[in-house]
């Protein structure tokens, strides 16, 4: 059976370059097919639900009607991982309150959230270790509860604390991980040597895991997760407890993995998701509060500080600003001539009131406002904004 | 099948890389042989291994919980259970794999007691049929004890608690099979209940096999007994997936 690895590529390939009679498309009048045109057609095929030449309106694709050179599996999943309304209770505690998200093939998803937000729980359900209390989750169109074993064959998992059989040798352990995950015969050796290379374990294969440093153990954990070349990698805090150099190494390793695998990783290091994730999901108190790319998240949130250049008598401006923003940090960065440059930490207010108040103050005193900008937000601002907002609300209630 | 073999292989290896295999095996053999030699190898005794095999259930009672206490408790404490349960292996396969590993290890230790029948055979005319039969019985007995010990290891993450729990449970089962306890129970409970309780004791079925009578009913009892506790074990592990 032909399984699509990465949607855009095979469809744009020569096999589907000219499927027989796709929805009455006229051949390109410019002569030979330009690559752009081919891609355009491929995209149309996708939107038609892989009906392979049947009318775009027909909803249930039937394999029998496929006449193209490729026979495409009829129920090709749109997303590699689909989570719908997933809920999990630990006794009376609601760890997950019905979260939903999708992960497409080849995406690297960063799972962010404070401790106890439900990141690990979600991962444990996806890997089949825990059963959900409600909702559904599927990997590659297979339900994580009903087809648990089939799902687990497609997954590689690195649990949070990197548990390993410390009495085993590194190579012995990786062989075990490969075999138990269904790698057979001669492939075991090649799979093990592949991950030993990728994870930089060359020098320690003969050592007992007990002797390894935290960084090397983490690499062994990563190696066991990918030894069977799974479609999906689920990594729970892969860089926790590593030193900065090791973090950089593991991060670049994950970025390389993301080229071939679908990856979900959870972390507390915000730079990590900025660097390596194509999309970010922020979870807090069992619910998803954000699910977007880094750029979109950052652009949607005001930064927590504003900068202003004000022309006016220095002491007076200083005093009045401190009075206006009482309880907030007002800092004069520098002063050239009449102009004072100020930075005001005013919190990530969603409305524009700090700017308005400042402009009003300047106007009232007859000063001049040469510049008024908000600093660009960082992911940290977004994270604090989304996760703290909820807790303070809960605290007030 | 393949998965079970892989689990069994890893588990068996882990016995031998840690000191537990040697300490356990050594102590077990010393205690067993010492007790045997002092009670059995006496001038004028009949050449059979009755007293050797009669000791086994008691020695097993104290040693096997120590062998099984780590099976799940250690994995849970170290967190490796989480990884183990996300491998594409069913809970039943995991349990079978671990059970077989313990049983194979114990069989190897039992193989080392072959010196006892050899010594007896050198000094008298030993009938090997009942001896073979008794070895089979002792492995069935060990299987029953291991399944109880493994279940106890699954309910807790503390190895010591697993050990004590298994010890108490096995002791109760052992006592239920002894005629002395049965007589005393009869004064308290109706006869049907006493015989039902006695029937649950693996000790009951050991003696007849150890004497050389291989009855299918006894075999079926041991299979059911192991099956029951291994199934309970599976329920505990599955239940933990629900509870988290």
Q: If you average the pLDDT of chain B, what whole number results?
A: 88
Unreliable stretches of chain B (pLDDT < 50, length at least 5) are none
Strand content of chain B: under 5%
Helix % of chain B is over 70%
Report how far apart the termini of chain A are: 56 Å
Q: What is the radius of gyration of chain B computed over CA atoms, rounded to a whole number of angstroms? A: 19 Å
Number of strands of chain A: 14
Q: Write the element-wise H/E pattern of chain B from the N-terminal end onward.
A: HHHHHHHHHHHHH
Order of helices and strands of chain A: HHEEEHEEHEHHHEHEHEEHEHEEHEH
Shape field of chain A: elongated
Summarize the biggest pleated sheet of chain A.
6 strands, mixed
How large is the count of helical segments of chain B? 13
Largest sheet of chain B: none
- CA-atom Rg of chain A in angstroms: 27 Å
**What's the tally of helices of chain A?**
13
Summary tags:
heterodimer, A: 397 residues, alpha/beta, six-stranded mixed sheet, four-stranded antiparallel sheet, 13 helices, 35% helix, elongated, disordered N terminus, disordered C terminus, B: 244 residues, mainly alpha, globular
Task: Describe, in plain words, how this protein is organized in 3D.
The complex is a heterodimer of chains A (397) and B (244). In chain A, the strands form 3 sheets. In chain A, strands 6-7-8-3-9-10 form a 6-stranded mixed β-sheet, with helices on both faces. A 4-stranded antiparallel β-sheet of chain A has the order 2-1-4-5. In chain A, strands 12-13-11-14 form a 4-stranded antiparallel β-sheet, with helices on one face. Chain A starts with 7 loop residues before the first helix and ends with a helix. Chain A is built from 13 helices and 14 strands. Chain A has helices at residues 8-12, 35-47, 119-126, 148-153, 170-180, 186-198, 214-226, 244-257, 270-276, 294-299, 314-324, 353-365, 379-396, and strands at residues 81-90, 93-103, 108-112, 134-139, 142-143, 155-158, 232-236, 262-266, 279-284, 287-292, 305-311, 330-336, 339-345, 368-374. The longest helix of chain A is centred in the C-terminal third of the chain and has 18 residues, at 379-396. Chain A has 397 residues and is α/β, with parallel strands linked by helices. The model of chain A is unreliable at 1-68 and 392-397 (pLDDT under 50). With 244 residues, chain B is mostly helical. Helices cover 82% and strands 0% of the residues of chain B. Chain B contains 13 helices and no strands. Chain B has helices at 2-17, 20-40, 50-68, 70-78, 80-84, 91-111, 115-123, 128-155, 159-176, 179-186, 191-199, 202-210, 216-243. In chain B, helix 8 (128-155) packs across helix 9 (159-176) and helix 8 packs parallel to helix 13 (216-243). The longest helix of chain B is centred in the middle third of the chain and has 28 residues, at 128-155. The mean pLDDT of chain B is 88. The chains are: A alpha/beta (397), B mainly alpha (244). The interface between A and B is medium-sized, with 33 and 24 residues.
């Amino acid at each position: 059976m032909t399984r699509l690895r990465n949607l855009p590529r095979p469809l744009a390939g020569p096999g589907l370059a000219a499927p027989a009679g796709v929805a009455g498309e006229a051949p390109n009048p410019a002569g030979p097919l330009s690559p752009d045109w081919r891609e355009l057609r491929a995209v149309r095929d996708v939107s038609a639900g892989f009906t392979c030449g049947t009318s775009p309106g027909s909803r249930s694709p039937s394999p029998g009607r496929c006449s193209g050179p490729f026979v495409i599996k009829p129920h090709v999943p749109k997303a590699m991982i689909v989570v719908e309304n997933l809920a999990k209770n630990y006794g009376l505690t609601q760890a997950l309150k019905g979260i939903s998200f999708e992960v497409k093939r080849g995406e690297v998803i960063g799972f962010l959230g404070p401790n106890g937000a439900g990141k690990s729980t979600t991962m444990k359900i996806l890997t089949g270790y825990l059963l959900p209390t409600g909702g559904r989750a599927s990997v590659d169109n297979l339900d994580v509860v009903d087809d648990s074993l089939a799902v687990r064959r497609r997954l590689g998992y690195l649990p949070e604390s990197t548990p390993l059989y410390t009495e085993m040798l590194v190579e012995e352990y990786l062989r075990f991980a490969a075999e138990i995950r269904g790698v057979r015969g001669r492939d075991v050796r090649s799979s093990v040597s592949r991950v030993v290379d990728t994870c930089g374990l060359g020098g320690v294969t003969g050592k007992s895991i007990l002797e390894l440093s935290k960084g090397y153990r983490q690499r062994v954990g990563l190696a066991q997760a990918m030894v069977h070349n799974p479609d999906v990698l689920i990594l729970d805090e892969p860089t926790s407890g590593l030193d900065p150099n090791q973090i950089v190494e593991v991060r670049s390793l994950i970025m390389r993995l993301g080229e071939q695998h679908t990856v979900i990783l959870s972390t507390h290091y915000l730079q990590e998701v900025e660097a390596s994730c194509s999309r970010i999901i922020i979870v807090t108190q069992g619910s998803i509060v954000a699910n977007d790319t880094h750029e979109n998240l950052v652009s949607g949130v005001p930064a927590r500080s504003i900068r202003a250049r004000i022309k006016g008598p220095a002491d007076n401006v200083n005093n009045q600003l401190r009075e206006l923003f009482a309880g907030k940090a007002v800092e004069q960065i520098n002063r050239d001539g009449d102009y004072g440059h100020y930075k005001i930490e005013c919190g990530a207010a969603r409305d524009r009131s700090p700017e308005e108040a400042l402009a009003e103050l300047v106007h009232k005193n007859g000063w001049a406002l040469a510049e008024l900008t908000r600093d660009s937000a960082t992911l940290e601002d977004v994270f604090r904004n989304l996760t703290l907002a909820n807790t303070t609300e809960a605290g007030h209630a | 099948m393949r998965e079970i073999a892989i689990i069994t292989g890893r588990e068996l290896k882990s016995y031998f890389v840690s000191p537990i295999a040697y300490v356990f095996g050594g102590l077990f053999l010393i205690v067993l042989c010492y007790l045997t030699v002092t009670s059995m190898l006496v001038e004028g005794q009949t050449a059979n291994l009755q007293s050797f095999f009669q000791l086994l259930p008691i020695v097993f009672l104290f040693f096997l919980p120590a062998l099984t206490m780590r099976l799940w408790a250690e994995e849970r404490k170290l967190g490796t259970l989480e990884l183990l349960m996300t491998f594409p292996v069913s809970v039943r396969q995991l349990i079978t794999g671990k059970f077989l590993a313990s049983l194979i290890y114990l069989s190897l230790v039992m193989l080392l007691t072959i010196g006892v029948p050899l010594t007896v055979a050198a000094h008298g005319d030993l009938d090997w049929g009942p001896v073979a039969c008794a070895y089979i019985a002792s492995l069935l007995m060990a299987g029953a004890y291991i399944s109880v010990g493994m279940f106890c290891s699954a309910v807790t993450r503390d190895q010591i608690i697993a050990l004590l729990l298994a010890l108490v449970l096995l002791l109760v089962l052992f006592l239920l099979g002894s005629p002395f306890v049965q007589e005393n129970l009869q004064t308290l409970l109706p006869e049907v209940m006493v015989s039902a309780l006695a029937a649950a004791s693996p000790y009951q079925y050991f003696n007849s096999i150890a004497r050389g009578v291989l009855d299918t009913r006894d075999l079926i009892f041991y299979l059911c007994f192991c099956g029951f506790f291994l199934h309970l074990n599976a329920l505990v592990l599955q239940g933990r997936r629900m509870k988290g």
